[in-house]
Amino acid sequence: MIRKSSIIILLGLISVAFCSVSQRMMSVKPGERLEMEFYGNITIFTIMVYNAKDVLQTHVFRVCNGKNKSKCGFWENKKNKQKVGPATIFNIKKSLLIIPKVGDRLEIEYYSPKKLERFVKNAKGVEQHQVYRICNGNNKAKCGFWENIKTKKKVGPTTNYNKKKNMMVIPKVKLLDAGTYRDNYYDTVYVYIEK
């Protein structure tokens, strides 16, 4: 549980390539979306937050790299090794950290993709591979919606791709929208949704 009045976040990033450490102090109101841009080869974020009992805790977020699947993509209490909030997105290529909640508008920037893919779990916990084809004038029957690759059925939330802003938009994100998103150039974003 986080302090009600405001969240004081001290973010430190560690760059493996340069072994450098950077710190930022931020104050965010509860329910507000937090976005921060970082530069360099980022592997770990560390935040220090106060819990409901006003005890300072250190949480660690490891960036997914393909080799650390069981240890990445979530915040972990450094002391007791338990998973903790908040839900977090980190785009490796764009070095962008996003924290959305259920009902938030989810926006992910992709430059001129032909299609988007996502790997999500359904309500029964079964992983699904879905594709979203960008409309180009020649594919009207097959574009503008998520399709289950296996069943060929329309699935998923209402989603738009804004070509002027190069932005995929899900107006109201749900828990089942958590997963891995990528374009045809394999620009990958990991989405974690907070309840």
Number of helices: 0
Major pleated sheet: 9 strands, antiparallel
DSSP strand tally: 18
Distance between the termini: 13 Å
Structural class: mainly beta
> What is the mean predicted local confidence, pLDDT?
73
Radius of gyration: 18 Å
SS strand fraction: over 45%
Helix-strand string: EEEEEEEEEEEEEEEEEE
Q: Strand order, main sheet: write it out.
A: 3-9-8-18-17-11-12-13-14
Sum up the overall morphology in one term.
elongated
Total domain count = 2
**Fraction of residues in helix:** under 10%
Protein name: Protein CBG05388
Keywords: Signal
Which descriptors apply to this entry?
single chain, 195 residues, mainly beta, 2 domains, nine-stranded antiparallel sheet, six-stranded antiparallel sheet, 18 strands, disordered N terminus
What does this structure look like?
The chain has 195 residues and is mainly beta. It has 2 domains: 7-99, no CATH class; 106-191, no CATH class. A hairpin with a 5-residue loop joins β4 (42-50) and β5. The strands form 3 sheets. The chain has a 9-stranded antiparallel β-sheet with strand order 3-9-8-18-17-11-12-13-14, with no helix packed on it. Residues 1-28 have low confidence and may be disordered. The protein has no helices and 18 strands.
Question: What secondary-structure arrangement, pairings included, does this model have?
Answer:
Blueprint: E1 7-15, E2 20-28, E3 34-37, E4 42-50, E5 56-62, E6 75-77, E7 83-84, E8 89-91, E9 96-99, E10 106-109, E11 115-121, E12 127-133, E13 146-148, E14 154-155, E15 160-162, E16 167-170, E17 179-183, E18 188-191
Antiparallel strand pairs: 1-2, 1-4, 3-9, 4-5, 5-6, 6-7, 8-9, 8-18, 10-16, 11-12, 11-17, 12-13, 13-14, 15-16, 17-18
Protein name: Protein CBG05388
Keywords: Signal
Signal peptide: 1-19
